[in-house]
Amino acid sequence: MSDTPAFEPRIVAFFCNWCTYTAADLAGTARLTYAPNVRVVRIMCSGRLDPQFVVTALRQGADGVLIGGCHPGDCHYQEGNYKMLRRFHLLKRMLKQFGIDDQRVRLEWISASEGDKVQRVINEMVAQVRDLGPLALVGKPTPHPDASEKHAAA
Amino acid sequence: MSETMQSAEPRVGVYVCHCGINIAAKVDIAAVVEFAKTLPYVIVVRDYKFMCSDPGQELLQQDIKELGLNRIVVASCSPLMHEATFRHATEAAGLNQFYFQMANIREHVSWVTADKALATRKSQALVSAAVRRVVLNEPLEHQKVPVKPNVLVVGGGIAGIHAALTLANAGKQVTLVEREPTIGGHMAKFDKTFPTLDCAACILTPKMSMVRSHPNITMLTYAEVVGVEGYVGNFTVKVKKKARYVHEELCVGCNECVEACVYKEGRFTDTFNEGLSKRKPVYMPFPQATPSVVLIDPESCIELKTGKCKKQCATACTRNAIDFTMTDEIVALEVGAIIIATGFQTFDATRIPQYGYGKFPNVYTSLEVERLVNASGPTGGEVQLRDGSTPKRVGIIHCVGSRDEKTNRHCSRVCCMYSLKLAHLIHERTDAEVYNLYIDMRTPGKGYEEFYDKLLKEGVNFIRGRAAEVTDWTVTPEEEGKLVIRAEDTLIGVVRRIPVDMVVLSVGLEAHADADEVRRLFNISCSKEGWFLERHPKLAPVSTFTDGIFIAGACQGPKDIPDTVAQAGAAVAEALALVDRGFVELEPNTAFITKELCSGCHTCIAMCPFSAIRYNKEAGVAEINPALCKGCGTCVAACPSGAAQQHLFTDEQIFQEIEGVLNYV
Ligand SMILES: Cc1cc2nc3c(=O)[nH]c(=O)nc-3n(C[C@H](O)[C@H](O)[C@H](O)COP(=O)(O)OP(=O)(O)OC[C@H]3O[C@@H](n4cnc5c(N)ncnc54)[C@H](O)[C@@H]3O)c2cc1C
């Protein structure tokens, strides 16, 4: 065994308040264990997802981004998820042009009752991004092994 | 005060909750506390066993007062659970409640992470995100909107009936919408109810007529909700009333028209009797139908199909109630709250072909047998086989379409009890030998186990084991002419063949086939099986994720009548709490435009599903009406210049959160 720890991807998730965030809560209530690599940012609707959020997350050190919204037709705000879907396709194309594998950005429709889907999707995505390896971007910050140092300095 | 707070240097207090051992067992609280101390603007970090408790809340309130904190972060459960609690605590200490931020380290961390070190790191990341974000939070005010006092109840089974009556007795104006021509639901079909065996009609029909005569209830039967708009406290609902071809206000339910119909005998499937009898095109669903009004079925009425009938029914009606020109009608309602009580459907027994339903005439569903034992049913309460003879041996197969990987995994909760009820009734009326084939006998409930005991003493036979098949392939002279139930008797470990005259399939309870459409209409959620989803399985069992919409009865999951009625009462209490308060506070997470940045490109206007954005020609910029904005933020994401922003979810806040969650792995 080598001394350097195996690569553990860092994934930022944007979950809509009504379906996917609630599903993630349900996964918790049901004690469904899953990989700890995903950190959720709550937005009211997946339609709030500005492509800049994804780009920023990748630039700030994320190796992947997961977006979760209500199933088509179920949006709490009628059609925010459709609007996000359109942006998502454009965004994927753009990321490709930057040389970012489009498997690093994933969109899933997860309803409030699908706690098990949260577990499955997160585990799948973590495994997938782990296989892809770290996202190599010029100027991307390296993970701080000890953030307290960073802040003590700040 | 808020002005000065905003300009003042942020002073953040972080509170890490143990939640008993719910968080503390999986997250190193001390490490999270130490980490939080290193974050920018953090003045104080504390941990406590239960932050949501009074002493927990006092902790942060005291610090606001004594340490001059102006930003609060609580790392505990989901914001969907306790955000309101901590916002109120913050406000009570004199700080604007939106200077508060929550980090979800229970549902999203301690309950889902196996490794303690990793759970601790994830918690630190979430705390870091919350701290960075709260610094940018602004003081906001809730928008207060008046609530309409009227309530809509959808579904007129026992749940809807009980809900409508209770609301009406509290002085509310209630509209009860029922899809069938009569209210009553499943209960109206039963003769007796377990475990007390009291007569279903005797306890239900008085309630049904109270609904009809109550001055505060408008009953819309043969009607369905087709559109729902608006939000908590202010729903606009469209109801389609199907044409009955009979004026409800004129018909007195004398049935003269039914007598006079050109069809001398019933010819068409009577669905109320589960197809065990025939009705005419003009009919009364059942004698105690409420409203007591006939209707004409356009599929079978000669006049409505061809326009070539003698219309004897119309002539027979002395009140001129029959009107063949009637059309569907749309009724618009304005209500503050909605209770959904649409009940269940029974499992389709043809889906398990080995039980022979639809193939062998004397294989019945339990619901059909409910009609057979019913005094006002197709046989006047006689338990008869299709040929009119009385069965001597009857087999009741439990769990048909329940507790079965191939059909439904859930237990339907009422089948054991209603099977016992039917066993008792059949035995009592026919003296037949009755066999109950069960997997497990489930009789939890007041007086239920006692009822089971009584049946055991009555001499009903119980065989533990799932029935394999029902067949007419006989092997012994004793089986000749009978149906044979093959089942493994797991208590003695042999496969048995039980010859019977009648088989009763105890079909399970399922969500309605159209549950998904209904759910979409009301913007609520369903479980995978189609049961409407409650907001919290324990603490908010009748609320949904859509404020102002409540659920009651079997539409939420299989349940018996006592539980259904209790739940209907609970839904009423929630609805009353909402409408009697008179107003709702809307989350101030609306979008707004910074004029100086807006180029007037119109992108946002097309994005808004609520038409809340308009273009101000004179100023050359877009404007958002906060009263119409629902706070989705879609316009904000689309705005190319960053002029559109969303309160509580500004770009800057989200960027900070992103940076925060990536802070530590
Ligand atoms: C065979 C059998 C025997 C039973 N025996 C007993 C017993 O003895 N004791 C006991 O406690 N429980 C018994 N139960 C359980 C009992 O039936 C339920 O507890 C009860 O009916 C639930 O009431 P509900 O109002 O929720 O649903 P339902 O009775 O199903 O009523 C729902 C109503 O909503 C209407 N509806 C549906 N969809 C819509 C829509 N989209 N718009 C408008 N209206 C709609 C339906 O037409 C119906 O009138 C038995 C169940 C079965 C299957």
Description:
The complex is a heterodimer of chains A (154) and B (665). Chain A contains five helices and four strands. With 154 residues, chain A is α/β, with parallel strands linked by helices. Chain A has a single domain, classed as Rossmann fold (3-Layer(aba) Sandwich), CATH 3.40.50. Chain A has a four-stranded parallel β-sheet with strand order 2-1-3-4, sandwiched between helices. In chain A, strand 3 (64-69), helix 3 and strand 4 (105-109) form a beta-alpha-beta unit. Chain A is globular, with a radius of gyration of 16 Å. The N and C termini of chain A lie far apart (36 Å). With 665 residues, chain B is an alpha/beta fold. Among the domains of chain B are: 3-140, 3-Layer(aba) Sandwich (Rossmann fold); 256-316, no CATH class; 345-510, 3-Layer(bba) Sandwich (FAD/NAD(P)-binding domain), CATH 3.50.50.60; 591-646, Alpha-Beta Plaits (2-Layer Sandwich). In chain B, the strands form twelve sheets. Chain B has a five-stranded parallel β-sheet, with helices on one face. In chain B, a hairpin with a 4-residue loop joins strand 25 (483-489) and strand 26. Chain B starts with a helix and ends with a helix. Chains A and B meet through helix 1, strand 2, helix 2, helix 3 and helix 5 of A and helix 4, helix 5, helix 6, helix 18 and helix 19 of B.
Helix and strand layout, with pairings?
The complex is a heterodimer of chains A (154) and B (665).
Chain A: E1 11-16, H1 20-29, E2 38-43, H2 51-59, E3 64-69, H3 80-97, E4 105-109, H4 115-132, H5 147-153
Helix pairs in contact in A: 1-4
Chain B: H1 2-7, E1 12-17, H2 29-37, E2 42-48, H3 54-67, E3 71-76, H4 79-92, E4 100-104, H5 106-110, H6 116-134, E5 143-146, E6 151-154, H7 158-169, E7 174-177, E8 192-193, E9 198-199, H8 200-213, E10 217-220, E11 223-231, E12 234-241, H9 256-260, E13 268-269, E14 278-279, E15 282-283, E16 295-296, H10 302-306, H11 312-316, E17 329-335, E18 337-340, E19 345-346, E20 363-365, H12 366-372, E21 393-400, H13 415-430, E22 433-438, H14 448-458, E23 461-464, E24 467-471, E25 483-489, E26 494-500, E27 502-507, E28 509-510, H15 515-522, E29 549-551, H16 561-581, E30 583-586, E31 591-593, H17 603-607, E32 613-616, E33 621-624, H18 634-638, E34 644-646, H19 651-661
Parallel strand pairs in B: 1-2, 1-3, 3-4, 6-7, 6-18, 7-10, 18-29, 20-27, 21-22, 21-27, 22-23
Antiparallel strand pairs in B: 5-30, 8-9, 11-12, 12-17, 13-14, 15-16, 19-28, 24-25, 25-26, 31-34, 32-33
Helix pairs in contact in B: 2-6, 3-4, 6-19, 7-8, 7-16, 13-14
Bound molecules: flavin-adenine dinucleotide.
